Amino acid sequence: MQQIISFLDKNKLFILFLLLEVFAVIFTIQSHSFHKSKFVNSANFLSGGIYNKINSFKELLYLKKENERLNEENVYLKNLLSLEDKEVVQHDLTVVDTLKYKQIYSYTAAKVINNNYRKNNNYLTINKGSNQGLGSDQGVINSKGIVGITKSVSGNYATVLSILNVNSRINAKLLNSDHYGSLSWDNLDYNTVQLLDLPIQADIYRGDTVVTGGKSTIFPEGIPIGTIKDFKTLNNNYEYINILLFNDMSSIGNIQVIKNFDKTEIQTLEEKSTNE
Predict the structure, then answer these.
(1) What gap in Å lies between CA 253 and CA 268, rounded to an integer?
(2) Cβ–Cβ < 8 Å for 255, 142
(3) CA atoms of 59 and 212, how far apart (whole Å)
(4) 72 near 57, Cβ under 8 Å?
(5) Cα Rg, the chain, nearest whole Å
(6) Separation CA 23–CA 29 (nearest Å)
(7) Which of 158, 257, 176, 260 is nearest to 215 (CA)?
(8) Pick from 8-12, 98-102, 153-157: least confident
């Protein structure tokens, strides 16, 4: 306490000067509209900048939750779009069938909790499992395109066979063509996969878009994969076709798992035809 009193006593003239300056500024601002407007504008500018910084910090804190919310919303919209409209046309009138909507695919939101992309046999681990309706051999995608196929499933987790796995084979096609091939990976670049078995009759160009072919029970047709990076022909065949992925497979977060409700029926029918 004695030190505070001593400090005030030593600096009383300077403190008095500061107080007088403050009062002078206040009186000037109050009595002159021009100075008052300038002061208000400056104060608003400073407070606005502070509020922007605080808001940016809050947005950063809530970004994770917002991304999860958007992923859930995307799943909801995809489930709506997967309803197949079954309207019957009779005598130029559209009759809505009582069994109008048949859902072929459902989508479940999940998050990647582990991701390998530099090995020969890369896998991802996601935080959903059989308790949430997931099973093996289900397609995994995100907002940019395909990610892989579920492999092993436990109660609350599942592993995903990445498209960056030398054992991965996914039916794929050119966006603007009915020519199909098989998507594979040569273990050289995690940004690039290969399209195999595409017939030479298919005219391809750099930049052409490649999507899922829909010739399996795993992925619907038309899910983005990537664009043709380069290719080479040899002996009237494509020696290789490199596909630059839309996805950055080193950074996969929120994903959706696709369930095909007709999968078992289709597989049973095909197995029966094969055994006959």
Answers:
(1) 34
(2) yes
(3) 36
(4) no
(5) 31
(6) 10
(7) 260
(8) 98-102
Q: What is the pLDDT of residues 64-81, one digit of tens each?
A: 666 766 777 677 666 666
Tokens of 268: 């049973």
Q: What is the mean pLDDT of residues 95-109?
A: 64
Q: Give dist(CA 43, CA 138) in Å, integer.
A: 58
**pTM for the predicted model, two decimal places:** 0.69
Three-state secondary structure string covering the chain:
CHHHHHHHHHCHHHHHHHHHHHHHHHHHHHHCHHHHHHHHHHHHHHHHHHHHHHHHHHHHHHHHHHHHHHHHHHHHHHHHHCEEEEEEEECCEEEEEEEEEEECEEEEEEEEEEECCCCCEEEEEECCCHHHCCCCCCEEEECCEEEEEEEEECCCCEEEEEEEECCCCEEEEECCCCCEEEEECCCCCCCEEEEECCCCCCCCCCCCEEEECCCCCCCCCCCEEEEEEEEEEECCEEEEEEEEECCCCCCCCEEEEEEECCHHHHHHHHHHHHHC
C-beta separation of 158 from 168 below 8 A: no
Distance CA 258, CA 141 (A): 8
Size of the chain in residues? 276
As a whole number of angstroms, the distance between CA 23 and CA 75 comes to: 62
Which residues 6+ apart lie within 8 Å of 11 measured at CB? Answer: none
